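So, could you explain this one?
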Amino acid sequence: MRNSMKKQGGFGYILPLVVMAILASSALLDTLMFTKEVKRYDHFVKNTTDKVVEIVKSAWTFHLDDLNNEPDPTSINRWPENTDSLYAVNYLEQCDPLASCIEINRTLWDSPIEFERFVPQDVTDPLNPIDLPAKIRFTIDTSGATDNGAGDIGLAMELASHFPAGSVIGTEISFSVSRPAVDIAHNALTRTDGTNLPTAHWDFDGFNITEMGDMNFKDYIGGDGTPVSLRDSVFDTISLYSHGSYINKPSCPAGSISKIYLGMSQLVGRNSKAVKMGSFQTYATDSGSRWMVNIRYYTQNTSGVGYWEYPDGNNGKALAFTRCETI
């Protein structure tokens, strides 16, 4: 009897360990499965966004090269009709029929990555809608991408967050892409004398843009009543610097000089009785191919004696702007 009890007691000790081992194995298996699912999910997101970026770049190139011979850059005909149009001109590369690969216009879960051309409208006045520059609209469906509907919707929401103004209805993602920014700039700029706009190849009556010197913004008049210069509106540096820091000067074309502008951004007074209002100074000293930033403030010690304090990097910052300025 005693031996039997001993055996039962031993088994009683082992049983909890067995249960714990089973639970631990189950938890480990769940963790491994979850990790695998997360990696698969992340792979779906990266692969799809990479494909969309590649398609958009190709569509932009098609638009800029004007392969449809449409002179109006805002026209719907300036865009490729679909991915087949991009394959036709070798702006996208199709899979080798003998190779095992997935076409660039299909997802890893075999859903098409499609786009279509459309003309958005300004309907501020519903009775007189105004056509806006044409765009392309992408649609992607995540249905069946994961093991359940909730996962498909979650993937759709995640993908939509990677695209401009992405929206989701169920498992369908939709977002639009505007014409290339460089093309928009063509319509925003004019020659300094205001005579004409650049062409699609950035030429002005045969003069390359690099030979033009400066340009003005079209229809942008400054407070002094004169057109605003493009060169004078572009800053090479916009950043925070501490006392004693150096900033490289921009290399400026003929007809312009390098300039720096400084303003106080952060200041903490130390070892002082008071800081006199109006005694903050930020200025730059010339050091050949660069400037040195100077920050100081006039204050008083406990005896009332005035002196200049130069804050260290933790107690003072100046906001610096550098640019090439037209002479």
